[in-house]
C-alpha cells in the first residue's frame, strides 16, 4: 500500500496511540495527533495531509462533525470517521458531511487499511469526476458562447438578406412600373397604325402586319412585367385576398376576349358553362390570373387545328373550372416541377414563355383557398382542374 500523510484527531490518548502504531506499521506518515477540533485545524494550517482520521465525539466547541465541515470547506481532504457507535442517530448526523468512510471502534488492522484505501480511491475518483465536470462545463460555456456568436452573425446575415430582398423587390417594382407607361403608349400607337391601315394606302398590308407584330410583342412584354410585378408583391409579402362582388358573365367574357386576342395559332376555344350564379364574392384580380394563365397556356401549347375545352360550373359554393387541351403534354418525369418558378418542360421547343404563369396560378389558388390538380400525357394533352370557394 502507498504511503500517506495522515492526521489523527482523537481525544482518547490510548486509542490515538494504537491507531498511530497501526498506521505507521503500514508505512504511513503521521503528521500529528489532535485531541480537539481546534488543534486539528491548527495542524492542518501548517501541514499538508492526505487523509484525516476523525473521532466523532470530540470535547470542546468543535466536535468531529463540525470540524469535518470546516476541513471539507477549507482543505478538501478526505475524512474517515472513527466512532464506537453505529446507531441510526449517529449515522444521520455524519451523512450530511459526506465522509469518505466510517470505521467502528474497536477496529482491526486489515479493516482499517481497506477503509483508508477505499477512502483515498473514492476521493481521487470524485476529484477526477469534478475535474471532468469542470472541463465539460467550460466546453459547454465556450460552445454556448460560440453558438451565441454564430447566432449573432446569422442574425446579421439574415437581416442583410432581408434588406437585400427588400431592395430587390423595390427595384423590381419600380423598374416594372417604369416600363408600364411607355408600353401602354406603344400599344396605343400600334392600335392606331392598324386603324390607319384600314384606309387605302400603298403599304396597307405591311403596316397592318408590322402593327400586329408590335401589338403582340408589347402584349407579351406587358404580360411578363405583370408576372414580375406579381412576384415582387408575393416576395414582399404584400399578397392580399380582397374579395368583392363581381359579375360572373362579365368576368368570363373578359378572360375569353383577352385570350382570343392573343391567339397566334389555329386553335379554337370550346366553352361550356354550367348553371352559374349571376354574381359571386371573390378576388377578381386573383381569379383573373388563374383563368387567363391556364386558358392562355392551353391555347399556346395546343397543336395547330386543335381545340381547347373550357368548362365552368358552380357547386357547393365553389367555382369548378376545367381547362383541357390536346397539345404537347408534360413529360411524366418533369410533372413534379410544373409549378416551380421559371420551370419550362424540355419539349416546349420554340414556343415562347417565361415559366412564370403556372407558378402565379399556384400562388393565386393558394391565396384564394382553392385547389388545383392536373392530368397530362406527353403528345396527347393536359387537363387542369381548379376548385375555388366563393360566396
UniProtKB/TrEMBL annotation:
<dbReference type="InterPro" id="IPR005467">
    <property type="entry name" value="His_kinase_dom"/>
</dbReference>
<dbReference type="Pfam" id="PF02518">
    <property type="entry name" value="HATPase_c"/>
</dbReference>
<dbReference type="InterPro" id="IPR036097">
    <property type="entry name" value="HisK_dim/P_sf"/>
</dbReference>
<dbReference type="InterPro" id="IPR003661">
    <property type="entry name" value="HisK_dim/P_dom"/>
</dbReference>
<dbReference type="InterPro" id="IPR003594">
    <property type="entry name" value="HATPase_dom"/>
</dbReference>
<dbReference type="Pfam" id="PF00072">
    <property type="entry name" value="Response_reg"/>
</dbReference>
<protein>
    <recommendedName>
        <fullName>histidine kinase</fullName>
        <ecNumber>2.7.13.3</ecNumber>
    </recommendedName>
</protein>
<dbReference type="InterPro" id="IPR036890">
    <property type="entry name" value="HATPase_C_sf"/>
</dbReference>
<dbReference type="InterPro" id="IPR011006">
    <property type="entry name" value="CheY-like_superfamily"/>
</dbReference>
<feature type="domain" description="Histidine kinase">
    <location>
        <begin position="174"/>
        <end position="391"/>
    </location>
</feature>
<keyword id="KW-0175">Coiled coil</keyword>
<dbReference type="InterPro" id="IPR050736">
    <property type="entry name" value="Sensor_HK_Regulatory"/>
</dbReference>
<dbReference type="InterPro" id="IPR004358">
    <property type="entry name" value="Sig_transdc_His_kin-like_C"/>
</dbReference>
<keyword id="KW-0418">Kinase</keyword>
<feature type="modified residue" description="4-aspartylphosphate">
    <location>
        <position position="55"/>
    </location>
</feature>
<keyword id="KW-0597">Phosphoprotein</keyword>
<feature type="domain" description="Response regulatory">
    <location>
        <begin position="5"/>
        <end position="120"/>
    </location>
</feature>
<feature type="coiled-coil region">
    <location>
        <begin position="118"/>
        <end position="170"/>
    </location>
</feature>
<keyword id="KW-0902">Two-component regulatory system</keyword>
<dbReference type="InterPro" id="IPR001789">
    <property type="entry name" value="Sig_transdc_resp-reg_receiver"/>
</dbReference>
<keyword id="KW-0808">Transferase</keyword>
<dbReference type="Pfam" id="PF00512">
    <property type="entry name" value="HisKA"/>
</dbReference>
Amino acid at each position: 500500500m502507498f504511503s500517506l500523510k495522515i492526521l489523527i484527531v482523537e481525544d482518547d490518548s490510548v486509542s490515538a496511540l494504537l491507531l498511530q502504531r497501526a498506521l505507521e506499521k503500514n508505512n504511513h506518515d503521521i503528521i500529528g495527533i489532535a485531541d480537539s477540533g481546534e488543534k486539528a485545524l491548527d495542524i492542518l494550517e501548517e501541514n499538508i495531509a492526505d487523509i484525516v482520521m476523525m473521532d466523532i465525539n470530540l470535547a470542546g466547541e468543535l466536535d468531529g462533525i463540525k470540524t469535518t465541515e470546516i476541513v471539507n470547506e477549507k482543505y478538501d481532504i478526505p475524512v474517515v470517521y472513527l466512532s464506537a457507535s453505529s446507531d441510526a442517530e449517529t449515522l444521520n448526523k455524519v451523512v450530511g458531511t459526506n465522509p469518505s468512510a466510517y470505521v467502528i471502534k474497536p477496529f482491526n488492522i486489515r479493516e482499517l487499511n481497506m477503509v483508508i484505501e477505499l477512502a483515498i480511491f473514492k476521493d481521487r475518483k470524485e476529484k477526477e469526476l469534478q475535474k471532468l465536470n469542470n472541463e465539460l462545463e467550460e466546453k459547454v460555456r465556450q460552445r454556448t458562447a460560440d453558438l451565441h456568436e454564430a447566432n449573432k452573425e446569422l442574425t446579421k446575415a439574415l437581416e442583410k438578406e432581408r434588406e437585400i430582398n427588400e431592395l430587390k423587390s423595390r427595384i423590381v417594382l419600380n423598374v416594372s412600373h417604369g416600363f408600364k407607361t411607355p408600353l401602354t403608349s406603344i400599344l396605343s400607337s400600334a392600335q392606331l397604325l392598324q386603324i390607319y391601315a384600314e384606309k387605302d394606302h400603298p403599304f396597307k398590308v405591311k403596316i397592318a402586319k408590322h402593327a400586329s407584330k408590335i401589338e403582340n410583342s408589347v402584349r407579351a412584354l406587358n404580360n411578363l412585367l405583370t408576372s414580375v410585378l406579381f412576384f415582387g408583391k408575393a416576395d414582399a409579402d404584400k399578397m392580399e385576398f380582397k374579395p368583392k362582388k363581381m359579375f360572373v358573365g362579365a368576368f368570363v367574357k373578359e378572360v375569353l376576349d383577352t385570350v382570343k386576342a392573343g391567339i397566334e395559332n389555329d386553335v379554337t376555344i370550346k366553352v361550356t358553362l354550367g348553371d352559374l350564379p349571376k354574381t359571386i364574392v371573390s378576388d377578381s384580380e386573383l381569379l383573373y390570373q388563374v383563368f387567363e394563365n391556364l386558358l392562355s397556356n392551353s391555347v399556346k401549347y395546343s397543336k395547330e387545328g386543335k381545340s381547347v375545352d373550357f368548362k365552368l360550373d358552380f357547386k357547393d359554393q365553389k367555382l369548378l373550372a376545367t381547362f383541357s387541351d390536346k397539345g404537347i403534354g408534360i413529360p411524366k418525369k418533369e410533372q413534379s416541377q410544373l409549378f416551380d418558378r421559371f420551370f419550362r418542360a424540355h419539349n416546349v421547343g420554340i414556343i415562347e414563355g417565361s415559366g412564370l404563369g403556372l407558378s402565379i396560378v399556384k400562388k393565386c389558388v393558394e391565396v384564394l383557398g382553392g385547389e388545383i390538380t392536373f392530368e397530362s400525357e406527353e403528345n396527347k394533352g393536359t387537363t387542369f382542374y381548379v376548385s375555388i370557394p366563393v360566396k
